[in-house]
Amino acid sequence: MRMGSSALAVCALLTLSGCGGVDTATPAGGAAVPPGTTSRVPTSATPAQETPTRPAVLFGGDYRFGSGLVVTVSEPKTFTPSESAFPDADRAAAFMLTVRNETDKPYRLSQLSVRAGTPDERAPQVVDPTQGYTGIVEADHDLPTGDEIKLQYAFAVPARRTPVELTVCPEMSGRVEAVYHGRV
Hints:
By secondary structure, the protein is mostly beta strands. Helix content is 7%, strand content 33%. It has one helix at residues 5-16; strands at 31-33, 56-58, 62-64, 69-73, 77-79, 92-101, 107-108, 113-117, 122-123, 142-143, 148-156, 163-169, 178-183. Strands 1, 3, 4, 5, 6 and 11 form a 6-stranded antiparallel β-sheet that branches. Strands 2-13-12-8-9 form a 5-stranded mixed β-sheet, with no helix packed on it. The relative contact order is 0.23. Mean pLDDT is 78; it is low at 1-18 and 20-52.
């Protein structure tokens, strides 16, 4: 069977998007849940070979990955970075990530990847110790089953109000991700 050029283009686009891939674990039960809830969504009988989707969650919402890891991304808080911030930026947006381990084994925080971007470009992470934005300082620790941790991230954003996406990948393979979005 021969694939058309548009089908090949779609396959190439899906391969290049995200943290290195998309959530192909649909049968494992990954699903967006309303803020403040932890209810499980029934697993799908859909084969993993179907076209995967990138789950989109509004800022302030929870997402339960197929593994059972639940990540909440707060509404963004904009601020003016201090003189000691790196990189130099006029405006930044801070996000509080709450990572809750509802899996059956400890979760290594160094597996977590978080990146942000606007429609025009990728947003660099801002490290501003003066204001408490230091990135993950406990990356070499395990999060025990049933525990949660709060992590603060900050990213440089344009001076004008703009749509922003925050992509969270819970594993190094980058095959699983959730995209949180809103205006900053």
